Structure formats: C-alpha cells, structure tokens
Amino acid sequence: MIPNIHNPLSCKICDIHKSLFDGNILIQNQVRKDLGNLEKEEIQFFHATDHWVLREAEPEKSCKGYLYLEPRKHSESFTDISSEAYKEMGVLIEQGMHWIEQNFHPKKIYTLTISEAVPHIHFHLVPRYKQDVKGLDYLKLALGSLLGKS
Ligand SMILES: [Zn+2]
Questions:
Q1: Burial, 58: exposed, middle or buried (Cβ in 10 Å; 0-12, 13-18, 19+)?
Q2: Helix, strand, coil shares of the chain as percentages rounded to 5?
Q3: Please, what are the domains in the chain?
Q4: At CA 104, angle to CA 103 and CA 108, rounded to 5?
C-alpha cells in the first residue's frame, strides 16, 4: 500500500488525493474502476504510483476519457519534481493514452499543462471526438467544462 503523502496546504488536488488515500481505495500499480461509495460519482478511473496519480476528470467536463496526471507531492514548479518521478511520468502518460484510446477511440488526444487555476502542477490528457472544433478553441471548451453546453 502506498503511504499517504499528506500535505497541509490548502489545495484542491492535495485534498482529492488525501480523500482517495484516506478512503483506502488506491492500490499501488492497480487500475480500479469500482471505487466503492467514496468518490464514485466523481472519479471513474485512477491509477497511483509512488509519485503520481492518474485520474479521470470530473463528470462536469462532459468529456469521456479526460484524464489528469498529478504529482502526489504538492509541487508548484516542474523543477520540484524528482528524477524518479520524471521516470515514472512517461510510463503513466503511455498508460493513460492507451486507456483513452482503447476505451473511447477519440480522433485525437491533446496533452497540456497550465496549472494557473490550481497551482499544484498537473497535466491534462484531453480526448477530442468531433471534427468541428479543434486545437486551442476545443481546449478552452474542454478545460472550461463547456463541452456539454456547446
Ligand atoms: Zn497540492
């Protein structure tokens, strides 16, 4: 079992991670789809390693397969990420991409990091399914939870 890396800072991402680990529902290197009653409505997929959490975005995003990749340690700069964490990151991006592709078959998967609204650094893996809106215009809708409203 992965130890809980509790962070005392007020941070949305740290709070989500804490709730996942406190709920005893993260199992190292194992993908689970059934999360019991905790967070079941909010998170359908996640995967945890020593350094990262890969998890599905909230349903409000209205984008099936949308994933976040977040360091478990509260970090506001990419220079705070350890070499070990960077080594794990590539594997997790690979796993996330394959999970999205195999389950949802999007036309394209975008990858980006901004970390302005929530300073805890994180990556977005954002599938695109339609051809009408692409690139930055699509990402503004996806990140702004506006896809279901367009
Ligand atoms: Zn944090």
A1: middle
A2: 35, 15, 50
A3: 12-149 (3.30.428.10)
A4: 130
Residue 22 CA to chain centroid, in angstroms? 18
pTM, two decimal places: 0.81
Q: Which of 106, 105, 116 is nearest to 138 (CA)?
A: 106
C-alpha of residue 120 to centroid of ligand 1, in Å: 5
Q: What CA–CA distance (Å, rounded) separates 32 from 19?
A: 16
Encode pLDDT of 80-121 as tens digits: 999 999 999 999 999 999 999 999 999 999 999 999 999 999
Give the distance (Å) from ligand 1 centre to CA of residue 75. Answer: 6
Residue 59 pLDDT grade (very low, low, confident, very high; cuts 50, 70, 90): confident
Task: Quote the distance between the C-alpha of residue 86 and its chain's center.
Answer: 16
Cα 4 to averaged position of ligand 1 atoms, centre (Å) = 13
End-to-end CA distance of the chain: 42
Q: Is 125 helix (H, G, I), strand (E, B) or coil?
A: strand
